[in-house]
Each structure stands twice: as structure tokens, then as C-alpha cells.
Write a structure and sequence with these properties.
Pfam families: Beta-prop_KIB1-4. InterPro entries: F-box_BR-signaling, KIB1-4_b-propeller. A hairpin with a 4-residue loop joins strand 2 (about 70-75) and strand 3 (about 80-85). Helices cover about 10% and strands about 35% of the residues. With about 375 residues, the protein is mainly β. The protein has helices at about 20-30, 35-40, 45-50, 215-220, 320-325, 340-350, and strands at about 60-65, 70-75, 80-85, 95-100, 105-110, 115, 125-130, 145-150, 160-165, 170-175, 185, 195-200, 200-205, 210-215, 225, 250-255, 260-265, 270-280, 285-290, 295-300, 305, 335, 355-360. It is built from six helices and 23 strands. The chain has two domains: about 20-50, no CATH class; about 55-360, Neuraminidase.
Amino acid sequence: MTSKKQKKPSTNEVRDWSSLPKLPLSIIASQLDAIAHVFFRSTCTTWSTISPRPKLPFVILANHTNLQRRTSVMFFDIDINLLIHLPKSSFEFGSIFCGSSHGYLAFLDPASKLYLINPITGHQILLPKHSAQYRKNKKFRGLHFQVKLALSAPPTDPQCVFAAISRSHNQVDVFKMSSISWKTLLSDGCHFSDIVFYKGYFYLCSNKALYRLDLEANGGTGMIVNVPLALPVDSVDIGESFYDIFQRLTYLVELSGYLHMVRMHVDGEDTYYEFLKVDFEKERLEMVKLGVEDLMFLGISLGIGTNAKRYQGCRNESMFLTKLTNDSEEPGVFCAEKPDINCYLEEFHGIDQWDTLGWLVPNFSL
């Protein structure tokens, strides 16, 4: 009697990863760091559904020489207290960090050319020479950033529009992939502190004033338009003594579908925050308080507003985020332009000689 030979699986056979049991997959997903989590969710639709929660953003850290020139970048996963090195995140020596958005890091090189890097895939996008003259203004030399870049869509989208501001100049520079150079739009003298793309438009802020970038105005040449908004009567009036931009900063961040203006000012060792929700329909700024579970990640990077209920384990006492929250003047607000994060990284994890640059939400796609 002859036995039937068992059929060996073909080496070219494609595995049906979606058919694996959900319970062990969910357990695996709960133990992953942010990078592994991105790869996990990209495997198939089923795996993405099993682990729908986004991870908390990375802290972007940069080592530097005594001349504040960046030499390398690392990432700290605040969800599991892990320092991560991504070899594909290298950048040109002497470059200035200009923010992060859609999973990309933006830099301005010594020749004033802007470029973006996806630190996971290594994909780079080169942009034309920018008109920023950050080296010629001694007053603003040494600031945490001189140029901030915002995107209307993922940078791989052919329709993506890039907009850059500088704290040292009253201008906005715009670049479209179909163009060969930047287009400069000037304001009436105000220096913008933040820029964000929200519901079809770029918005900019200067103190409590909000502006919209209308790229179709003036026959397509573009225009910076003031958005008239009534101020709340109980809003704090910061005097001229706080003019130093190290002490007073205004950020724009989307939270729960609404655009918010976050004003931060430092008085000695104390830091104060003011949260203003933009009500476009009623043309006013509304004073609000953050909810117990609201989180805001501010800095040079695109501002991130989210809700802690979406994250499992972020209230664990061993977590870096919880340690920051317990001692924060405003629980739930984490600003990369304050020294707190650097101090805590050194105290709890022995990570020193690194600057906190901003936040990164990893993106596996090009």
C-alpha cells in the first residue's frame, strides 16, 4: 500500500495574513513601538483594523556641537520609553530643522535649500532655494527655529503646496510642485509665529491676530488676508515686556475638528497658557479650557491635538508622558520649545546633550 505524498507548500504561494487569529495579533500589536506599529498596520486591512489606535508621536531629538549645528537625529517613543535610531534619517551637516508633517522631517541646508526626509523609508524630496536670510539677522541668530514649513497634503501628492514662514521676516513663501521657484507674499509688518493648513487654507497667527493665505486672490498672485475675529473680554493682555519671542509664543493646532490658537508666555519659572477656539461662523475667538483627556503637542512641528482616550497605557505611572503631565503647569500640553522635556529625558533616561526639536507621527509610505 503506497502512502500519498503530502503536498508541499509552494515557495511562491502568497500567505493570507488576514486569516490569522485576532487575539494573538492584538496582543502582539499592543507590545509594538511606534515604528513596528506602522509596519504592522500596513500588512493588510485586517491587521490595520485590529490595531486602529494611533501611537503617541515621537519626540524628535538632535545632537549638536557647541555651535548648535545639528549632527544627528534620534527619536524617543514616549509610549514605551524607548530611544530609537533610524539610520535613514541622516541629514546634511549644518542644516536647520524646519518642522515635521505627514511623517516627514523638513530641513533648510546651508545653501538655503529646503528638503524633506521620511526617516522610516529614507525617501527625500528636494525643494528649490528658499529666500530666508536667517544668517544675516543677528537678532534672530540662535533661535530654536528660523523657518517653519507647512504642507497642504502629503509631500508625495503632486498637488501639495508648501508654505514657509520665518520669525525674523514678515513674509510667507509658497511653492507648488508645478513651479520652479518660491513665490513670496509680504504682510504689513507682523512677524508670523505659526502656520497650519486647515480645511482648504493655510492659516497664520501673530499674537492674537489670525490670517488666511488666499492663493487665488489678485489674479492668482496670492494675498495674506486678515481674518476679523472678536477677542474674548477675559483674554490676558501680555504687555511689551513679554515681546521677547523666547517668552511669548502663539501656536495653531486642530483639536476635535476645530482650529485653536494657543498662547504661551513665560514669566520667570512659570509658564502660562491661553486656549482660544476659532469660531469662524460667529467671527470670534472663544476662551476654552482643555478637557481632562485632551492632549496637545506643540513646537516647530505641525501641532498635534488629540484625546488621550485613544491611547492605551499613556496613564501608566512609568510612562514618560505621565511624568511630564504630573509636573506640568498645564496638564496635557507638551511644548518642544520649553526645556522641560530635555530635563526629564536626562533625569529619567540619562539622555543628555540632545535638543528637543519637535514631534513626529511616523509614516510608512513614501
